[in-house]
Amino acid sequence: MAEAAIANDNADLMLSVNNIEVVYNEVILVLRGVSLDVPKGALVTLLGPNGAGKSTTLKAISGLLGTEDGEVTRGEVIYNGKNVANGSPDQIVRDGIFQVMEGRRIIEDMTVIENLRLGAYTRKDSNAEIKADIEKVFHYFPRLKERTGLAGYLSGGEQQMLAIGRAIMSKPDMILLDEPSMGLSPLLVKEVFEIIRTLNKELGITMLLVEQNANMALKHCDYGYIMESGKVVLDGTREELLSNEDVKEFYLGGGGEERKSFKNLKSYKRRKRWL
Amino acid sequence: MNWDLLIQLLMNGLIIGCLYGVVAMCFVLIYKSTQIVNFAQGEFLLIGAWVCWWFLTTWELPFIVGFLFTLGFMTVFGIALQVIVLRPMIGEPIISVIMVTIGLSLFFQASMKWMFGVNVQPFPRVFDTQTVEFLGFQVQTAYIMSLVISLFIMVGFAWFFKTSKHGLAMRATAFDQQVAQSLGISVKNVFAMAWAISAVVSAVAGVVIGIVNGVSDTLAFIGIKVFPAVILGGLDSIIGAIVGGIIIGLLENFAEFTDSQWFHVGNLYTIAPFYVLVIILMIKPYGLFGTKDIERV
């Protein structure tokens, strides 16, 4: 079922994950055959409950799985026609995929500018070009420009902006975003998502976004996948997912059917699992 | 009170303290970026000094050429050491890695003795004038050179970590290896670079001390002196390493002064830094500039 409708047009596919299986520490099976396609220039979102394997899917793509003793044991990750499964993370960054990890993970004992310069680590460009790109990041995130101290003292939202700005600095073709809304106030979440959409449109950066905030993610995405227990259980375009009764029920709160009592709702949820 | 002697000794202390600081910086560099406590730090000085001495005496190269060759050799040596010996140890328990560096230290000391003998060998004359007048004191040219080189290295380190791309990458790796990898930094290369820089800079200190005192295996003892300096400054602070080094250098010479004036113990000079080590570990185990959650070994 993970075969997306848009997957038919192979020429426009940037990333195609084919039936991957991921094992941690050689014993723990986390992903049990995940497939998804990301077309060039799209904003694709990956939703699901905690422990579904969303972050693991991103790490399998970016190669960071290796730093956590994980391994892709089956299937392939095709990026621009090349299988990058189990590749080294630094090579994958050089190839143009940059992951913004969960929890922002900026370098707290460095300044904003130093963090941004590190984002450009893999580029061979001159200092002047990198400076110009830092200005470009400040254009999208004006409030970062005023922060001259250490990045550790930035607010959560600013840190998230810095993490995204750092990703832009590497001039990626594709950004993997892991829960950009984590720990942010609703207003900031809105702001961050709007910036993500703008970057996707203006710079043409393909995005694969993992989110808990299904409302926000579905509002901005082009296409979505829903994962549960290491498998993709549902996928569809934004409109399809937004009108799906199960998605409404499980992720967006409340279904379109008649009102049920709280007790009934719970038992209904328990019975109706996708797997 | 013999004021002239005191000032002379404190000046020596400052100069040797700067060198301790430089070696301590090298030690901290490896500790910060690779989490390895390098007990073979002093042997880097020894190897550097002997190799330079060998270039100057056996090959009769001019000093500057021999010195540059030594730096080239130490770069290759540092990288090779990391790739061949320490890279396979990644992920092993910290105590195993420490045992390996202690083993390396013994191995290098023994092989240097085997190759170059056990006697002190003087460096060929590097400077035409042996002493210069400085603020009314007769100071050995070599000491002035040593001070200048130490300061030059410290400024170099500051520049490297503040502005260069590889310095930033090294700091990122020290902060969080996974984040560094997500930025496209090859952690393996950073490790190799840390060992290479550490070996080269230590060798410079080794050559400088060799020029002043002659080359012998007592040079490796500097590597032990680095521990009080580093513990005093904080195990993971470059600034702390420099400050700790200078304090230990001054303290050592002050101990020498008090010893010669009043106590007449004879070897307070060598022991004093280690008293400091014990006291610091008791009252301020993270040192002056260290971060609190550093793992002790």
UniProtKB/TrEMBL annotation, chain A:
Domain ABC transporter: 15-254
MF-aspect GO terms: ATP binding; ATP hydrolysis activity; branched-chain amino acid transmembrane transporter activity
Sorted UniProt keywords: Amino-acid transport, ATP-binding, Nucleotide-binding, Transport
GO biological process, one term: L-amino acid transport
Domain of life from the UniProt record: Bacteria
Record's keyword annotation contains Transport: yes
Keyword ATP-binding assigned: yes
InterPro entries reported for this sequence: AAA+_ATPase, ABC_transporter-like_ATP-bd, ABC_transporter-like_CS, BCAA_Transport_ATP-bd_LivF, P-loop_NTPase
Coiled-coil spans in chain: none
SMART domains attached to this UniProt entry: AAA
Signal peptide region: none
UniProt record similarity statement: Belongs to the ABC transporter superfamily.
Protein name from the UniProt record: ABC transporter ATP-binding protein
The organism's taxonomic lineage, starting at the top: Bacteria, Pseudomonadati, Pseudomonadota, Alphaproteobacteria, Rhodospirillales
From TrEMBL, chain B:
Molecular-function GO terms, alphabetical: transmembrane transporter activity
Keyword line: Amino-acid transport, Cell membrane, Membrane, Transmembrane, Transmembrane helix, Transport
InterPro entries with a match to the protein in the record: ABC_transp_permease (IPR001851), BCAA_transport_permease (IPR052157)
An example Gene Ontology biological process: amino acid transport
Membrane topology note: Multi-pass membrane protein
Main location: membrane
Family named by the database record: Belongs to the binding-protein-dependent transport system permease family. LivHM subfamily.
Protein name, per record: Branched-chain amino acid ABC transporter permease
